[in-house]
Every structure is written in C-alpha cells, then in structure tokens.
User: Fold this.
Amino acid sequence: MVRVAPAVDPASLLGVVRIALASSDGIKVGVAATGQVTTGTRPGLRIPADALRRSMVGEDEVVVCDGGTAHVRKVVIAQRAEQGVAIKEGLKPGEQVVIDHVLGLQDGQALVAADHKRAESGSAGTGSDDKARTAKGVTNK
Assistant:
C-alpha cells in the first residue's frame, strides 16, 4: 500500500509518502528515508549534461560522432534532471554523442575513440584525466 499526500510544502518542496513494507526487519519506527516517485514517463533519449552546449545564437546542441567525424546537431530538450538531460528531438537511438570537451569541436572535425587515443599514446590509463576521457567515450583528434 502506498499513500501520497495531495500537496507538497511550498517552502521546502517536500511531501509525505507512506508505504507499507512486506518486511520491516531492521527498520525502526520513525526512521527517515529519501526516495523518488515517478509520476510518468516521456519518450526520448537521456544524455549526460556535459554533452550539451549552446550555439552562438543560444540554441541547445550536441556533437554526434558518425564515422569518426563530428556533426553538430541542434536538439530540443524535454527535461533537465540530476540523471542527465532528456532530449525530445534531434537525436536518434544508438547515435554516439561526444561528452568530453564538446565546446571546442566543429562540424566535420575528425574524432577518435578515447580508448583508441589512449592505446596510441601508450598510456596505461592510471591518471584521473585518462580515466575520465575513457569513460566518456569520444574525444577530439
């Protein structure tokens, strides 16, 4: 059973949710918890906020890597959240989005996968910068 308060406190933006647990082993009465209530879902793709940039005219855009080449793409944002940015229009499922050093990239610029660049330079990947770039996937050549 779940009961959700019909409104939130306008000052704190907090609300009350009461839930019934199947087992309460190890949980004491009155203990506080943090949770997230999903009220609906929207179609779209989620990308890391670092992948998003602004054009010279203030439009939101991302850089897509296709065949080792950067392609600057205008996007429409559906929602910004802690988990990333939901894209409503401008990206297709499966496209590779550059999320490392996107501000300096230009349309048509050559790109290389971060793992490939690290292997060419002989780096073992122990530095924090290498680790971050590898996790992000694509970087400029």
Notes: DSSP finds two helices and eleven strands in the chain. Helices lie at 114-121, 128-136.
